[in-house]
Amino acid sequence: MKKFLSFFNSKNSPAPEVLEEEERCHHYIAEDSWFEVDFPSVVRKEEEKQEDPESGWSKTISYTAGLGDSFYSIMHYSFESAHVDERDPRYNMKAVLEDTLKALVRDCAGSRLVNSGFTSFLGHQALDAELRSDTTIYKITFFFNGRDSYLISITYPLRAPAKPTFEEFKSSFKFREKILSKFHFVCEEAGFEVDFPEEPKKTEKHEEGITASGVVIFYEAIRDQATFSVVYNSFDDEKAVAYDLAYNMEARLVGLVTGMLSQYQDSELLSAEYISFLGYPAVNFAIKFSVTVGAEKFFYISRITNFFKDLHAYTLTVTYPVDTPEPNFAEFTASFVFRKKSL
Asked: Could you give all domains of the chain from N- to C-terminal order, each with its CATH number?
């Protein structure tokens, strides 16, 4: 968290530039962070990638510009993991914002919190705050947009003859449409490649079951409010062969659908069909289910393709909240192809 907030400390702040009046306006477009804003001068951009086990931040991009004794800043923090996600109802965003503010006050040596309050900024829950030291005033607005967070701030001397207008700077901030790039993911260990919306996160575990056991690997990526995943199961030979003798393929697939429905509350089978996927028997199905957080209930839809290849099973899934735009599941599955597994 200290790295997350380090730019507030004056020793790390960029030296402000002294500009002539005609130079004091610069409309800046941040292509990498999907926003545009009016800075008072030419912008300095810095980017850093890091692994921080405490906060989970993976990438920080800072945009700063000086004017006299003041400087204006926007910092963009991006998670590669789903450590915090504004779209996930399991997260209490007020608590997340409050914890961030507490860390900010703690890590800004010699500063105290003057005032703070929750607000709405461009449709997102946000936190406004003002901090002061003996010499400096910090005004900030902090908010999340999905798994990305933004910190808009102005820093200026306590006894500055002319106070900069934070609201004017903040009101010029606007989001730009994200360019929906694809991340072509090549997985040698599981023997496939597929187009994810971004680089997927990997988790792995070993499962012991009555009919089969083996390694289960999850590959997951998020775009907007949709989660794209590929789950790979590699079964132990002895139990998998016994399972194959006891059940035909259709029974396997029926058991999979039934098992998934039993895992969720308010689950409902929306559709199901047997298909051939890359030459292997498969099932396409969609389910609707709910997740309860506190007193609120949130509904989701999952579209799933599952198939077996020898002693391996693959499950491709896209999950998204009800009443949100449906992601292109057909495009996701169409990008899936087999490749030779690494030994």
From this structure: 2-175 (3.40.1000.10), 183-338 (3.40.1000.10)
> CB 226: neighbour CB atoms within 10 A?
23
Measured distance CA(123)–CA(289) in Å, rounded: 26
281 DSSP β-pair partners: 276
Q: How many other CB atoms are there within 10 angstroms of residue 178's CB atom?
A: 13
For residue 49, report the phi and psi dihedrals to the nearest 5 degrees: -110, 140
Query: What is the dihedral angle through the alpha carbons of 38, 39, 43, 48, rounded to the nearest 10 degrees?
Result: -80
* Bridge partners of residue 265, in order along the sequence: 290
- pTM equals 0.53
Start-to-end CA span in the chain (Å): 40
pLDDT in tens, the chain (343 residues): 444 344 444 444 444 443 333 345 689 999 888 899 999 999 999 998 776 655 555 688 999 999 888 999 999 988 655 456 565 555 677 888 888 888 888 877 788 999 999 999 988 889 999 999 999 999 999 998 877 889 999 999 988 877 888 999 999 999 887 655 688 999 988 999 999 988 899 998 876 654 455 678 999 998 877 899 999 988 765 555 444 544 556 666 677 777 777 888 888 889 888 888 998 888 899 999 998 877 778 899 999 999 888 778 899 999 988 877 788 999 999 999 998 755 4
- From residue 203, give the alpha-carbon distance in Å to each of 206, 216, 219, 230, 307: 11, 8, 7, 11, 20
- Angle at 287 (CA atoms; ends 281, 288), nearest 5 degrees: 175
- Residue 198 CB burial class (10 angstroms; 0-12, 13-18, ≥19): middle
